[in-house]
Amino acid sequence: xxxxxxxxxxxxxxxxxxxxxxxxxxxxxxxxxxxxxxxxxxxxxxxxxxxxxx
Length: 54
Fold this sequence. Notes:
Strand content: under 5%
Shape: elongated
Distance between the termini: 54 Å
Order of helices and strands: HHH
Oligomer: single chain
Largest sheet: none
Helix content: over 70%
Radius of gyration: 21 Å
């Protein structure tokens, strides 16, 4: 049913490519941030769920 609607839209083929590029760039940036981030900060954030502050 939707295939007919999508075939009638011009320029639609660019959206999957754009989505893949955004997805790839996001995870590359997160990877770079995780490598450059302060290790003490990451350790502190890692331990927050385990703290017992009632």
